[in-house]
Design brief:
Among the domains are: 1-89, Arc Repressor Mutant, subunit A (Orthogonal Bundle), CATH 1.10.10; 169-270, D-Maltodextrin-Binding Protein, domain 2 (3-Layer(aba) Sandwich), CATH 3.40.190. Helix 1 packs across helix 3 and helix 2 packs across helix 3. The strands form two sheets. Strands 3, 4, 5, 6, 7, 8, 9, 10 and 11 form a nine-stranded mixed β-sheet that branches. With 310 residues, it is α/β, with parallel strands linked by helices. The protein has helices at residues 4-15, 18-25, 29-43, 59-85, 100-117, 130-138, 154-157, 189-192, 205-215, 230-238, 285-305, and strands at residues 48-51, 54-57, 93-98, 122-127, 144-148, 161-176, 196-199, 222-226, 243-247, 258-261, 270-278.
């Protein structure tokens, strides 16, 4: 088994601070600092140095993290193959993670299927934003996660994780039921530019997606409410306070006073949904099975949510 202090070092490298690494690992900051000090003493090489009030990797520490990526991927493959070779070893635990709409539409049915097929298997689900899911994967507190690609940090983790496309999730527009466009089968962004908009706060990935969509058609929308939660946006729309984008994966309540309308045109915004896991870990039979189940669930969702008109 690989030295767990190497996992601590890689997690620190990805998270950037001792505090963030501690949150991902489930340790205290002092425990993370102590493990980093112990590891560099054991190796006889300076891995981290003080940088202001925090720590940063030395050149040696950065080199170790980079070279360790292939080592840990190989260990994941070996570990999975060894477990698969013993037919008496039943899968014990799988930890799944994902953002809120992915939890409801993808992770929940996949977890139920895994429990049905493997009654002795423990399935744990952690709901978290995509960036935190990646941190938890590196920290080995998640085994498989569903993220939005635009919110991942591939520049820091490309050599650590494997990304598997699941589906493209279009953003529809949500309008009040009494809105003049509510009966339309599809609308364009140009038709919506003058509407009062509800969207995320500036600086967030979804606000960037919102701005990019309208910039592509040469329009500047009027934002009247800044709300992050999809359910809260639906409530505001239902009460006639504006219109909003909503992912197709997001289900509306049966008593919703809002209507979903697909957007038409090449500039209609879409978010790409990915499954991510540590490199090499697909060799674990239960992880591979969960990944296959996620793919099947994604294909079923796409077939059910495809718009019927245009």
């Amino acid at each position: 088994m690989l030295d767990h202090r190497l996992v601590v070092l890689r997690t620190f490298a990805v998270c950037g601070t001792v505090t963030a690494a501690a949150a991902a690992l489930g340790y205290s900051p002092s425990a993370v600092s102590a493990q980093l000090r112990e590891y560099q003493r054991a190796l006889g090489v300076k891995l981290v140095v003080k940088d202001g009030r925090g720590l940063r990797l030395t050149a040696a520490g950065a080199a170790l993290v980079e070279r360790a990526d292939d080592l840990i991927a190989l260990w994941e493959e070996v570990h999975g193959q060894v477990r698969a070779a013993d037919r008496e070893v039943a899968p014990a635990l799988i930890r799944l993670g994902g953002f809120s709409t992915a939890t409801a539409s993808l992770l929940s049915p996949v977890a139920a299927r895994l429990r049905r097929d493997h009654p002795s298997l423990d399935v744990h689900i952690i709901e978290a934003d995509p960036e935190r899911c990646v941190d938890l994967l590196i920290a080995e507190r998640l085994d498989l996660a569903v993220i939005v690609s635009m919110q991942a940090r591939p520049e820091a983790t490309d050599s650590m994780i494997e990304q598997v496309p699941l589906l493209d999730d279009p953003l529809d527009v949500l309008v009040p039921a009494a809105h003049p466009l509510a009966e339309r089968s599809a609308v364009s962004l140009e038709e919506l530019a003058g509407e009062p908009w509800i969207t995320d706060r500036p600086g967030t990935p979804y606000r960037a997606l919102f701005v990019t969509a309208f910039t592509s058609v040469g329009a500047t929308p009027k934002v009247v409410h800044q709300v992050s939660d999809w359910g809260s946006q639906e409530s505001l729309v239902s009460n006639g306070l504006g219109v909003a984008f909503i992912p197709r994966l997001m289900r509306l309540g049966s008593d919703s006073g809002a209507v979903r309308i697909p957007l038409k045109g090449d500039t209609a915004p879409t978010r790409r949904i990915l499954a991510v896991l540590r490199r090499g870990s697909r060799s674990h039979q239960i992880f591979a099975e969960a990944l296959d189940a996620l793919g099947a669930a994604a294909r079923e969702i796409q077939s059910l949510t495809a718009p019927q008109g245009g």
